[in-house]
Amino acid sequence: MLNRAHLLGVYGGSFDPIHLGHLLPVEEARAATGLDEVLFVPAFAPPHKPQGPSASAFHRFGMCAAALEAYPHFLLSDFEVSRGGTTYTIETLRHVRANHPDSEVFLVLGSDSMAQLHTWREWKEIVASHRIVVVYREGVDYPDLREGLPPELSARLAPLGARPNDELADNQTVFWAGNAPVTISSTWIRSALPSVQSLSESLPPAVERYARRHRLYVAP
Question: What is the pTM of this model?
Fold first, then answer.
């Protein structure tokens, strides 16, 4: 009997800060789709956020490290933060594939990002080389994607409930995770940290402790 390939998701973002709206839906999506692990990749300079993050790459990486300790199936990569500058998703995926030759590398992204995937650099290579797990974010649901994506992408949507190990048509490579959305605003967290006593409903305790210890998001 042939061994099943190790399924590795790649999930990038500014994580400014990383919060439960990132962690809980991605873990639910991982379990639902059968991914073995998800590699979180904090960006040094996110290409879709020209104003840049509020906290330094060093501290955003540190908060991710603190948060992921509680999730045994989550890994952390310093590829983009150590590289510096702007790294595009296709470059990160190439790097991960080269360094994990025994894994099938999936792109994991929010439904709002999936709706814009056709505007990303070398998106056709992304789609041709990687299967995709879509994490539901409020505002863009499955019907929205099916109706709003260019035909070349909408044709790749697998049926609702389909999973990567199911027998599907070769072009059905985009999987809707079916997770419950957790809507938390990073902008609100950054503004609330200096004045709100506890953010336990939005932040993992280790991340809140880290941010307060380093006085992140506090005006000088």
Answer: 0.95
CB 202 within 8 Å of CB 21: yes
* Strand order from edge to edge, sheet including 6-13: 74-76, 37-42, 6-13, 103-110, 132-135, 174-176
Q: Is pLDDT above 90 for 32?
A: yes
Residue 118 phi/psi, 5° resolution?
A: -70, -5
CA atoms of 64 and 19, how far apart (whole Å): 9
Say if CB 55 and CB 19 are below 8 A apart: no
- Residues 192, 194, 200, 204: what is their CA dihedral angle, to the nearest 10 degrees? 100
Q: In this structure, what token pair is assigned to residue 121?
A: 């650099």
Q: What is the pLDDT of residues 96-154, one digit of tens each?
A: 999 999 999 999 999 999 999 999 999 999 999 999 999 999 899 999 999 999 999 99
Q: What angle do CA 4, 7, 113 make, to 5 degrees?
A: 150
Pairwise CA distance, residues 25 & 158, whole Å: 19
Domain ranges, ordered by start, for the chain: 9-213
| Superfamily of domain covering 9-213 | HUPs (3.40.50.620)
Tokens of 128: 């041709």
How many angstroms separate the CA atoms of 201 and 195, rounded? 15
